[in-house]
Amino acid sequence: MIRMRRPLILYVLALALVGLALAACSGDSKKETTPTPTPPALSVRDAWVRATVGAMAQAEQGAMGGHDMGSQGATGRVTGAFMVIENAGDTPDQLVGAAVSPEIAGAVEIHETTVGENDVMQMRPVQAIEVPAHGSVELKPGGYHIMLLDVQRDLNAGDTVTLTLSFASGASLDVDAAVRPLE
Amino acid sequence: MWRWLGLLTAGTLLMMALAACGGGGDGGPTATPLPGTLLDPPKEVGDFALTDQDGQPFRLSNLRGRVALLFFGYTNCPDICPTTLSEFKRVKALLGDDAERVAFIFVSVDGARDTPERLAAYVRAFDPQFIGLTGDDAALRPIARDFGVFYQRVNYESDTNYLVDHTASTFVVDQQGRLRLVFPYGTDPAVIVTRLRALW
Q: What is the rounded CA–CA span in Å between residue A87 and residue A85?
């Protein structure tokens, strides 16, 4: 029995060291458990919308006394909105919806773009985007975006689009997104 | 004996823990080769005929003597496609005077919605010299096969509302009309420029 004690101590020591190492690298945040977790505290920064294209084509066609304008509009111009959503609270939340004035776009969806096997790009609607507690999520090209469909008018650099975001917690947030040029 | 084993285990575990920890930080400059696949020997691709943004017929062979940078996408793509065309714009700027050696081409994989007019507005929003090409499925399929490009309509809701999955790589066809380089999505424009300059 006595012979066994040393190795046991060594194992305990080893585990303690590993624990310490892991603790050291996970670092920051939650030290001691706070008594009552605060609810999600959401804010948005760096919100922008990509300028739309297509206006020129319509104008050109118009100038040429061109064909059916309606069909051009019906092709449904789209664009994406991007931003960083931050949550300063102790509770995670989820972005579950977004809306804009019907004068801006006919429909709004939350999408995720993934570039997968063989460099194939896929874009899919998602139900929700997680906003972690004491963290943030970035909606950016090549990842999540809010897609505006059936865009009703030209969105040019310098314009502002107001988006209303809704969250699983019931919170709602109005965000002014600046329209950025295509380049 | 046990002691050694114990120490050894402790050491190993500690190293593993530290390794796991370092992982997220610096990937480390491990002298990786430049991104992009060089096709050696170059791959012969068939000449193709599509319609350009002015409604004129366009053949790949029109470009002989110039290098072509091609991306396959669609104008209703709010994300990857404009990002790549922005990068094309940067490639062009970085090339300076050598830019005239290169044709920048956006090939639509959505011929049903991407009319020449629409393409014209789209590519010219990035650069007046960018070329937009479109065609029906019958014209596009053999081209996609030659280049190894995948595309497929998904989330179909109506003739005007659907998405298209597609290969997001950038392809380089050399002065002799042969496929020479393939860059994965997101390749640094500076890297593309370096590899283009090696072609002349």
A: 7
- Pair A148, A115: CB distance under 8 Å: no
Q: How far apart, in Å, are the Cα atoms of B44 and each of B39, B62, B146, B166, B184?
A: 10, 16, 8, 22, 20
CB A44, CB A84: distance < 8 Å: yes
Size of interface A-B (CB pairs under 8 A): 150
pLDDT digits (tens, 9 = 90+) for B131-141: 999 999 999 99
User: How would DSSP label each residue in B94-130?
Assistant: HHGGGGGGEEEEEEES-TTT--HHHHHHHHHHH-TT-
Residues B96, B58: Cα–Cα separation, whole Å: 26
pTM comes to 0.75
Residue B129 tokens, joined: 């010299």
Is A15 within 8 Å of B83 when comparing Cβ atoms? no
Contact A62/B at CB under 8 A: no
Asked if A17's CB is within 8 angstroms of B185's CB, the reply is no
pLDDT in tens, B83-114: 999 999 999 999 999 999 999 999 999 999 99
Q: Which of B21, B79, B119, B149 to mutate to test the interface with A (most CBs of A within 10 A)?
A: B79
